[in-house]
Amino acid sequence: MIDHEKHIELLQRKLDREHEARLVAEKMLEAKSHELYNTNQMLNDSLEKLKLQAKFDSELLAYQNRMENLLLINARLFLKESATHENIQQLLDSLIDGNYVTGCYLAVYPTDKINISGKYSSGRMQEWSPPATLNTTDIYWESDKHVLWHNINTHSGCVGIFAVRIVCSEDRLNAIQKQMALFCELLRSAIGRLITFHQAINAKKRAEESEQSTRDFLAMINHELRTPLNGLLGSAELLHDTSLDTHQLKLLTTLNHSGELLRAIINDLLDYSKINAGMLELIEKPFDSHLLATKLEDIFTHKANEKRLDFNIYYAPDLPAALIGDEDRIKQIFVNLISNAIKFTSDGFVHAKLWWEDQKLQFSVRDSGCGIDQADQHKLFKPFSQVDITSKRSHEGTGLGLVICKQLCEQMGVLFESKARLVVAHVSKFHCL
To answer: What is the pLDDT of residues 14-23, one digit of tens each?
Structure first.
């Protein structure tokens, strides 16, 4: 009986231990289930966040792609055509998407009478008042009104204002502002090109008007200066044939010298003005190079004899007599060079030479004159420039002689060099008949 009771007691203890173990297991299972539930909730929350982020990124990416395509289309349009009221308004309308950009505004200031000046707007926002801060900065974010302001600056200065109203979350604002900055740059380029185009047209008109004024002035001054001067020199020539005493002859000589000097100055000024205005035309016709050399010698022999200079003009035996070119302008170049040589040579010689080489007429002048220092040679071809510019200089002239010679040579397509007292002109447009 006693053994039976002990056995029952042992069984009861075993049952109690199993019951306690089951309770502990149930508690552990309940804890694990709760933990799994919390983990599952965290996973679900993370999944929802990932879905929202993916949707956010895809929406923003789609918006950026659409804006880039729109930017490319309008960039091509503005390159193909000039900016107009219609295509500018169309661009502003296309920026309004209802999600991020709800209003656009553009003001183009009147500049050089461009045809797109004025104000443009699109979207729900009707009143646009630029903030005072925009006077000190080119970009300003007006946070209380959600408006981004841009000054439109070109080489002509500030030519307008571009503004957009952006309504979006803070994390998208920077990306959309960058997109709008690209459209502002597109408008700046289009407006700048239009301003440059109109400035070019106005400059062309002014140049044409200036050229016509120059033509009219040269025609007038040619008549108004040459006519009385020719009358003066003609009268002096007639006066020379009358009975005059020594003093009167001296005065008449001075009058003739001054008149000829004035005529040379007038001729230089008119020729220089014509060349710069593109009005000087070369007239090519046959001429005799041997006769040209004789004429040059006749012109300067008396002047060279007065200074007791050994003067001669030599032409080579193989120099073709018959050439084609503008004889008057060729002679003008040669006269200027020989005249300079005689003017700046007080004693010694002045030798000129014409010869034919490499199918070109070659001409050179050599003299024993004072020459020009190396440091002053850069002044040779500067208009109205002379080595001695003091009021006490001993040689007269406008400083245009060599300048005109060089420009005439360039117009003829020839090489012109001047080094101290050696001058060589290679005339390439002239050929044998």
So the answer is: 777 777 878 7
